[in-house]
Design a protein that fits this description.
Chain A has about 500 residues and is an all-alpha fold. Chain A contains 19 helices and 2 strands. In chain A, a hairpin with a 2-residue loop joins β1 and β2. The longest helix of chain B is centred in the last third of the chain and has 14 residues. Chain B is α/β, with parallel strands linked by helices and about 260 residues long. The chains are: A mainly alpha (about 500), B alpha/beta (about 260).
């Protein structure tokens, strides 16, 4: 017991400070105000956790500081919003993506059939680069003149009403050639990926891979005529179903983007950490510009789905249990209404926290991840292909961030400022918690969220200590500064972060 | 006797540094072969080259007759090679059980080998659910060796198992390794010459990244000139006093 206390002094001191502040808050504010500050803090904490957990796992396992994580969060918000409010864009790009993926599968198989390496290493690298450049060129050629603007136009108003997609969608005669060109681009990309220069990768020689690829392309062509009926159908179902769909889109798209980023871009750079940072920063710029190109700079407002949007008779819900049946937009917390969607975010964060914790503690892959955080070389020397685990963790982290983006969209809005903001707060949370620690990311995110919420309240009410006649008013930026302040304090007491391991 | 491992003139670089400048060795199946040499001679790098963590730039490595040069570390390990690195590199955050489970290459590995493992290291059974980081130094070393025993590895690369351990613990490690040699061939890197001379059948001496001498361990023990030339005068002195404890810590020998 004594040994335990001594080992965790810094942690206990921090908890003590948090408790003291909480006590001071309950003293200073009415309980209902304190409760809503805490709930706001938990909401922000849950969102920051979804970003910080991925950042921390990726850094812990692969030593990669992923500066593109905030962009992935933002991409999740845009994709989720699109799936929710206007599935037209996604339905019209899904076949294109499938064709590209299918082509890439076939290309990887073709690459596996080729002789091992060329005689001269520089020739190998040159061929690899040439294939990449060529495939990008073919992609650009394939999507030339593809008009996204009418596909993006916010059709939330059209929900339930008559939808005219004739002007927005391309005719199949124009669309199918794009699919075929993209298949070709995918084949080239797959060929390039199967020969990633200095890194020896597994050869994909199994014909099932190629078969899956051909299947994907076939599915892509088959669903072309279904674009309009699917859209009509999706806009006719309840917003709850579309919201679940949006979360799934975020999960899948985030995971896919993460896996692609790791395997195509980061993998060749594991021996060059500085280049990785530049690369992820570059990816975040490219992603942000891509978002601007597709969705414009205006930003969107995403409606809260029906399960947390009811109003009128009996609202706000008197407690959480009655909210499950009346779905009011807000819930009464000690006499003050609190938006119920934010309670949902807290719940979502909690569920994901537990699910990932179980994955890490119970499954074999979790054991490998935790071992790899300490020493990925040794994991490899045991006969485990740790590179594949790298891809998986990168995909998992990216998926969590993208889901966070979808969940945040009805709360924070969908705009271009989203990425940089959560990136910064996520990093702060990870540094507070200790790089590489999953629990640390959760605690750090909670602290950052609480600090934000508490800071906001301080800005609202000002600070009035007992001997002051009048409260000191503070600038709103104090709320943002408070998180950096906490980080500085924690680093002073415990340079490796609260749960970080001393090296 | 056939050779389970053959290393032929490998050259290994770490960054720009040319660490191994032509190391050749052959490990006969069923033996314990000691790899000796001063600090910085390239012993650890040789093991890391074999397992593929520092792939050699040139040369040939064959395990059970087939070429493994250029394969990735996980592929090499899966062929049946266990690696026990120096400094007891167990996974501190994982429990003893998880440390063993992670080494499984198929689901039943641990169950099949548990008699062997817990017969050698009964302590591990007692601390099965404890995090590896809370074990003592000796127990951590036992865990590191046990981890390499979970799959049926036919070759074990063991790096300095006696490092930093109390003499009494070194005795038990020596016992364990001796029993182990009935199950697997061992290539042992060891600074503690007494320990190496007790255990090994054959030896190789590395100097400045080259293999300079090889032979039967029994002959080396007689050859004080060779020992003091390549391993230092302290070793020769240790050999000269056979009544001294078998496993004196290296720090005291070097004086």
């Amino acid at each position: 017991m004594v040994a335990y206390l001594r080992r965790n002094t810094a942690l206990l001191v921090t908890l003590g400070i948090v408790l003291a502040i909480l006590l001071w808050m309950t003293n200073r504010y009415e309980p209902k105000v304190t409760a809503s500050i805490i709930l706001s803090g938990l909401t922000l904490g849950a969102l920051y956790f979804l970003v910080a957990s991925g950042l921390s796992l990726i850094f812990g396992l692969m030593d990669v500081l992923n500066f593109a994580h905030g962009m992935l969060f933002m991409m999740g918000a845009y994709l989720g919003f699109t799936a929710y409010a206007n599935p037209r864009l996604l339905l019209n790009t899904l076949p294109l993506v499938l064709a590209l993926l299918g082509g890439a599968q076939v290309g990887r198989w073709l690459g596996g059939m080729l002789p091992d390496k060329l005689k001269k290493p520089w020739l190998d690298t040159a061929l690899h680069l040439a294939l990449f450049v060529l495939s990008v060129a073919v992609i650009l050629f394939a999507v030339r003149g593809f008009n996204v603007q009418p596909l993006v136009a916010n059709s939330a108003t059209a929900a339930g009403g008559a939808i005219s997609t004739a002007d927005a969608q391309e005719a199949a005669s124009l669309y199918i050639p794009r699919l075929l060109w993209l298949t070709l681009a995918g084949v080239l990309l797959g060929l390039g990926l199967s020969r990633v220069g200095p890194v020896a990768t597994r050869r994909h020689t199994r014909w099932t891979g190629a078969l899956i690829g051909v299947g994907l392309v076939a599915v892509a062509i088959a669903i072309v005529p279904l674009r309009t009926p699917a859209e009509t159908f999706l806009l006719s179902v309840s917003s709850n179903i579309r919201f679940v769909l949006a979360l799934l889109v975020g999960l899948v798209a985030g995971g896919a983007l993460g896996a692609l980023m790791e395997s195509a871009l980061i993998r060749p750079l594991y021996s060059r950490p500085l280049y990785q940072i530049l690369l992820t920063l570059g990816v975040s710029f490219v992603g942000t510009e891509l978002i601007k190109t597709i969705w414009g700079t205006a930003g969107f407002y995403m409606d809260i789905p029906a399960f947390a949007a009811a109003s009128g008779e009996g609202c706000p819900s008197p407690n959480l249990w009655s909210w499950f049946s009346d779905h009011c937009a807000s819930i009464d917390v000690l006499g003050r209404p609190f938006p119920s969607y934010r309670i949902f975010i807290i719940g979502l964060g909690l569920v994901i926290f537990i699910a990932v914790a179980l994955l890490l503690q119970r499954s074999r892959i979790g054991i490998i991840i935790r071992a790899g955080v300490q020493d990925s070389e040794m994991v490899q020397a045991l006969g485990i292909n740790v590179r594949r685990v790298f891809t998986l963790v990168f995909a998992l982290g990216s998926a969590l961030a993208a889901v966070g983006g979808v969940a945040a969209a009805p709360f924070l809005g969908v705009n271009l400022g989203l990425g940089a903001e959560v990136q910064l707060q996520g990093f702060i949370a990870v540094v507070i918690g200790g790089m590489g620690s999953y629990i640390g990311a959760a605690v750090g995110a909670l602290l950052v969220g609480m600090a934000r919420a508490f800071g906001d309240q301080l800005v609202l009410s000002g600070i009035q200590l007992p001997w002051m006649d009048e409260a000191i008013r503070m600038s709103p930026s104090i709320a943002r500064a408070s998180t950096v302040l906490i980080m500085a304090l924690v680093l002073l007491v415990r340079p490796a972060g609260l749960f970080g391991k001393k090296e | 006797m056939t050779n389970i491992l053959e290393v032929d003139a490998i050259h290994t670089f770490i960054g720009q540094f040319h660490i191994l400048e032509g190391v050749s060795l052959a490990v006969p199946a069923g033996s314990i072969t000691a790899l000796l040499g001063r600090n910085g001679a390239g012993k650890t790098t040789t093991l890391r080259s074999i397992i593929g963590l520092n792939a050699p730039r040139s040369g040939r490595i064959a395990f059970e007759g087939s070429d493994i040069h250029g394969k990735t570390a996980y592929a090499i390990a899966s062929l049946g090679i266990g690696y026990v690195p120096e400094y007891r590199a167990i996974f501190r955050a994982l429990t003893v059980e998880e440390n063993l489970r992670i080494a499984e290459r198929s689901k039943k590995d641990l169950a099949r080998r548990s008699d062997l493992i817990f017969g050698l290291f009964p302590d591990l059974k007692r601390f099965y659910k404890l995090p590896g980081g809370q074990l003592s130094g000796g127990q951590q070393q036992m865990l590191a060796i046990a981890r390499a025993l979970v799959p049926e590895n036919r070759l074990l690369l063991i790096d300095e198992p006696s490092e930093g351990l109390a003499p009494i613990l070194i005795e038990s490690i020596v016992d364990a390794l001796r029993q182990l040699s009935a199950h697997a061939t061992i290539l042992l890197v060891e600074q503690n010459f007494r320990m190496a001379s007790i255990l090994a059948d054959r030896y190789y001496i590395l100097d400045d990244g080259q293999s300079v001498h090889a032979g039967q361990m029994a002959d080396l023990v007689q050859n004080r000139e060779l020992i003091s030339r390549y391993l230092g005068a302290g070793y020769a002195a240790a050999v000269a006093a056979p009544e001294s404890p078998a496993v004196m810590p290296t720090a005291q020998q070097g004086a």
